[in-house]
Hints:
Blueprint: H1 3-22, H2 26-34, H3 41-53, H4 57-70, H5 75-88, H6 100-117, H7 152-165, E1 170-174, E2 179-183, H8 197-207, E3 215-221, H9 236-249, E4 259-263, H10 276-279, E5 283-289
Parallel strand pairs: 3-4
Antiparallel strand pairs: 1-2, 2-5, 3-5
Helix pairs in contact: 1-2, 1-3, 1-6, 1-9, 2-3, 3-4, 3-6, 4-5
Amino acid sequence: MTTALTELTAALAAAEAAVLAREGKHGEALEVLAAQADDQPVVLDLQARVHAQLGDLAAADRAWKRVLELRPADPAALAGCALIAEITEGRRRRKPVPLLALGGAAATVLVVAAAVVVPIALSGNTEAVPVATATSGPPVSSTPPSPPVSSAAGDQRLAGLAETLAAPGIQVRRGERELRIVFEDGLFQPGGNRFTAAGRRVLTEWARRLRGAAVRVTVLGHGVALPGGPASGGSTVALGRASAAAAVLAGPGLPLSAITVATAEQAEAPFAGPDAAARNRTVVVVVAPG
């Protein structure tokens, strides 16, 4: 995974965690942040602030000092460490670290990171914004091609993989050389890359089926084509969802660097019908034998 994409993934996670922290869901926020690499200052700074809000100044100090290892002149980390030193030395009374600063910092980094990976077209449409990614090319088709005749060994391997990845609430759509995993219910809340509680749980549980499998994984993010907005192409929201899902899927045997993320062609959404909008706030996971 490119440096820009790693930074984008971290910034997306930080943005999600900042919302959770402002809602008082500190434990959930820390879980989201813990899934990220420990070399992303935006994640570490947010971890420090959440720990400080919880009164764990030692953990906050460790996180800010890690930021300073990466960015020795980081003003927020310098100020945080100085404040904790004054408190522990009895020169200052404890006071809350403002969580509102988290949202602003995370949002700023998110915009910067996204600008590196994708040129964002300004629009009032928050669910579907045209985008051309610098790393993944044009939007990727979500429709598997018609399968031509393939080798018996390849068929057998794909069939075995399909059996391994099958689960309740999940459709396994078979292509020529790959499987497309489609979640029957939407995974994300409207307008962004924040999971629903059920969506995160379903994706986390299904991710265990990938552990130890010799596979190649591509995550295609989907957005919802809104009235008056573009009906085709990709979207920044879709790319954000793909990055957020990749962070959940990554784990032992499947590092984040081994997962490709892309925005899907929104004209080829997984579902159609009256309830399609909620179901299409999702990702499709393309899995091929390694």
